[in-house]
Amino acid sequence: MQQSRERISYDNLNKFNLLIRIYVGLDFVLYALAVALFSLLIVILSQLLHGFSQDTCLALWLLLTLLALCCYRRRSKPLSADELLLQMDMDYEPSPYQAPDKQEFSRQKLQAMQTNSKDLLKRRGCSELQQFSQLLLQIAALIVCCSAVFMSAGITFAQLLPLPIHSQITLQILPDSKVKPLSTKQTATIPINSDNLVRITVQASALTAPPLLSLRQPDEAEFFQEVLFSRTDEGIYQLTMRIEQTAELLINSLHQGKVLARFELIPPTLPQVQMNFASKIATPHPDDSPIALMLVVSSRSALANVELEISSATGETQHELVHQFSGNAKHSLATTYQTVLEPYVEADYTEVMLVAVATDRNGSQGRSEPLTVQLVSAYGRYLHTLKTLRTLKTKLDEKIANQHGVSNDELVALMRVANQQAQASPFFDVRDRNTLVELYDTLRRAQQKTELLLVAEQLDLFLLEHEMINHRERDRDFFVAMHRLAWAKNSKKDLKPMLDKIGKFITERRRIWQQRVELLPDTQKPPNWSMIKRERPFMQALGKLRRTPSDEQLSATVNAYQSWISELEEHEDKVRQRVQQEVQRKVSAAQRQLKAMQKRQASISKALDKADQQSQTSLHQNWTTSRRQQNSNIKQAKRLHSQLAQVSRLAAMRMAAATQAMQEVKTCGDEQKFVCAESKSDLAGRLLHQTNNATRSRLLRHQRQARQVVGGNYFGQAITSGKIELQRDYKVNRRYREDILEQIQNSNLLEKHPDLLDSYLRKVLR
């Protein structure tokens, strides 16, 4: 019985439920269509009445549609087996489901129940179809009611919905005559050159305003260029432009967010440039010496010009024309070009980068690999030479102090380098070069410590003199700068760069002035230095020139500067003169004492003369007086040594050697070794004579007139007005000459030749 029930319940139920599900789906689709149409009608009316924007209308339409769809309620649903059995139970009398399970039914009754279930499903299906027909009628009525509104607001509706307008877009690369159509279905990739010209044509009769072309870089959202089309005819818009980089083309008013074309910029074929040095150059290279460059240029396009790009360390870049092409087209160039880089640099030591740039007639530029040149100015070479001499002076002092590690070959090599540098610098005159050559020769032949001391003293004076000259020459560069500033003002040029450089110059000079003033005694310091240090008048004057440049202000600044450096140099000269006077006083006193010592030492040598031929008794009797004189010389030599050390190291060293010789004279005399005492006494006399000569030489060098600084007219004024003293009055000691001549006249040269020669040698050596 149970199996019969199930078979009756489920025979036609699955087919019926499939039809119900199809109906439910169609019901939802038609409902959604009706809601969308009704919402669109409301939005169009709102836009016409209130003038809402396109984005606002779209948002309002989506909101109304979603709200209406959320309110949808399904009116039909599939029929379950229980519902079907319940319906059959209500239709049968008596109900077969109220009978016991074991009750038997006839075959005819089961067939009648199955037929009844089919009729029941048909009646239910007719009811559902009737409801579906009513929904179709409602949608048709809504479309008919909205047709008038759609006709009056067709253009507004077309703008409101993001639907593509039917259009035809073409692209042409000028001057090529080929026209390429563009489509949203496939993005066209178009290669273009840097000198391109693109024409884009749009045919769209439905547009009421010219479309807007947008360009963006690939895979980016923002546009870097937007250009409006120009209307050429009814419904035809055209735009001609140049594409300067790789970009994507969009026309959002026609195809929102659709990339129509991608332009691929082809790199231009640049001229090929090679540049090398034609010959080896020095490091650093003098800026006033020419540099030979070898250039090789080749290009597919005709060449226009070749330039030399010069970049300094300050960041400034200047150009120098190498070759200008005119007339017939040329595609290659091979030449050797010489350039002087002095006009392009201002620093004493700088690094310059050279690049050869070739430009063709299409405007494409080819560049060579950069060449780096280290440059040194004439003044920089001058400072470099002084630096080498200072290094030599330091090593020379170490050598004199008997320190290990410094050889004569190293000193000679440094002096040779300094001479070569001095020959290449115009800041050294003939006198300076001759002095350095003499020092080189002396140092090359030097074998003794005294010769090294002589070179060290002369080198010390040379450096001291040039330090003073350098400071004063640099002070006078201010006048040259102000002269150029006045010329620039009269030429209506920008004064700011020149004033900035003059300001840096004044800052550097103030630092040097501070050092120079600190070397002066407190009683000899310039009175105006405290004011210049505190108020900085020259920087204030430059500030006034920035605001109101005038000839009166320029003259006042120059006069104030001239007054200050004259005052500073005047006080320096006074101190220098006082030092010279003090040195002269000490040297004069030392010379008087040396003459007295030489006289006593000569008396000792005379008492010991020919000691090997005198008797011991005579020598012993004379030694008491000689010993007293020798003790007096030794005491005076010790006191004089400390004084000479402040004047001349060479004279002090000679005096120390003479003192030691006199000590040995005393020791040999006390031991009755009078021959040894005679020899040491002669040696002490010669050393005292050399000490006197070294002291006199030092005095002459201090008395030498200092060279005057005249560099007030142009930058890098050579050192002139130097006086070179030539000593021509060389004389033989009068005492020796007269004694020798008298002895020669009173003797027979043939008979007494051996004694005459012996006497001559003894007196000359003493």
Summarize the structure.
The chain is an alpha+beta fold and 766 residues long. It contains 20 helices and 19 strands.
What is the strand and helix layout of this fold?
Blueprint lengths: L1 H9 L2 H38 L3 H17 L10 H11 L15 H46 L1 H7 L7 E6 L5 E4 L5 E5 L5 E6 L8 E5 L8 E4 L1 E4 L2 E6 L5 E4 L8 E7 L6 E6 L7 E2 L4 E8 L4 E9 L5 E8 L7 E8 L9 E12 L4 E3 L3 E6 L1 H23 L7 H16 L6 H16 L3 H27 L1 H14 L5 H23 L10 H7 L1 H11 L3 H57 L8 H30 L3 H22 L3 H30 L30 H12 L7 H13 L1
Molecular structure report:
The protein is an alpha+beta fold and 766 residues long. Helix content is 56%, strand content 15%. It is built from 20 helices and 19 strands. The protein has helices at 2-10, 13-50, 54-70, 81-91, 107-152, 154-160, 378-400, 408-423, 430-445, 449-475, 477-490, 496-518, 529-535, 537-547, 551-607, 616-645, 649-670, 674-703, 734-745, 753-765; strands at 168-173, 179-182, 188-192, 198-203, 212-216, 225-228, 230-233, 236-241, 247-250, 259-265, 272-277, 285-286, 291-298, 303-311, 317-324, 332-339, 349-360, 365-367, 371-376. Strands 12, 14, 15, 17, 18 and 19 form a 6-stranded mixed sheet that branches. A hairpin with an 8-residue loop joins β5 and β6 (225-228). α11 packs antiparallel against α12 (496-518), α11 packs antiparallel against α15 and α12 packs antiparallel against α14 (537-547). The chain is elongated. Mean pLDDT is 77; it is low at 1-10, 99-110, 148-164 and 710-730.
Low-confidence stretches: 1-10, 99-110, 148-164, 710-730
Distance between the termini: 167 Å
Let me know the average pLDDT.
Answer: 77
Compute the CA-based radius of gyration.
Answer: 58 Å
Structural class of the helices, strands and pairings? alpha+beta
Query: Percent of residues in helical segments?
Result: 55-70%
- What is the approximate shape? elongated
The biggest beta sheet reads: 6 strands, mixed
